[in-house]
Amino acid sequence: MAIPTVVENVYRGLTDEQIRKHCPSVFAEDKYTDCSGKYTVIPTGDILTRLRQEGFTVVTAMQARSSNKEKFAHTNHLLRLRRISDLGRDITTKIEVPEVIINNSTDRSRAWQFFLGFCRSFCLNGLVVGDPAGTMRLYHRGGEDTVARVVEGSLRIIGESDKHLAVLQDMKRFHLSEQEQILFIKQAMKFRFGTDEEGKEAKKKQSVPYDPKSILVSVRFQDDAPTVNNIMNRAQEKLVKGARVQDTFGSWHKLQAIRDVRKNLSVNRAIWNLATASLEVKKLGGNLLDAKELFTH
User: What's the pTM?
Assistant: First the structure.
């Protein structure tokens, strides 16, 4: 599986030099040789220049590696940007910081994709909103207005943040029972281990029987309350970022971070969607144990 290089700085943001060192495909100015004549490259670096003019800066960059040295300069990459005024970790007034997430490549493997995300100041969890209203896609077909459309779309996406911050606040109001928490984690584990990055059934099944209760363990007091929001963050932090967890026999294992850009996005968004669906069930006074449609795939 492709292993991305990752660089992050939520305090000052990243310079072009730092991004180029770890994720050179961000600055690719031409397409991979295998692409057709209709495929048009708009360098991600050009987009960054415009977004910086709008007050954004990159705080996280990751890129997939490739055994093909020529293709490595064009491969899949992901950037998380936030407004310069949101740099730092203010755990008193800015617990969740909105971010624009850009996913692109110049090897025809990805269209331009843009997502709304949130970085949680307590733990630097990078959530990705699964709601279509917080996403945008553009294909590599060129056009003089492409850069302008990308900037406009990014501003529109960040403009959706208040609506989704309200969803997060609602998630903090509703609690899950112990059985509901385990059910939630089991479903989140299916996202991580039961499907590949395209959502198809994984060829390699989970080899270690990880204990859902181990993934549920809170690692900071801010996550102790069994709210929908906290259970979502516990799942995201351990299943996406990796952690030491136990199996069902009591042995400890190092669960590795997801090292594939596509998989990182797909699992992250799936956990968000599971949390929002769980929230709707709880708002109606329901029980997740009775919401079989949420846990059948």
Answer: 0.85
Q: What is the pLDDT of residues 60-118, one digit of tens each?
A: 998 877 666 655 566 788 899 999 999 987 666 778 999 999 888 766 666 778 899 99
pLDDT tens digit sequence for 4-44: 578 888 889 999 999 988 888 888 776 655 655 565 677 78
For the chain, the structural domain boundaries read: 5-170, 175-294
Cα–Cα distance, 112 to 103 (Å, whole number) = 6
Q: Which letter, b or e, does each residue of 206-239 get, where b requires 16 or more Cβ atoms within 10 Å of its Cβ?
A: eeeebbbebbbeeeeeebeebbbbbbbbbbbbbb
55 backbone φψ class: left, alpha, beta (φ>0; ψ -120 to 50): left
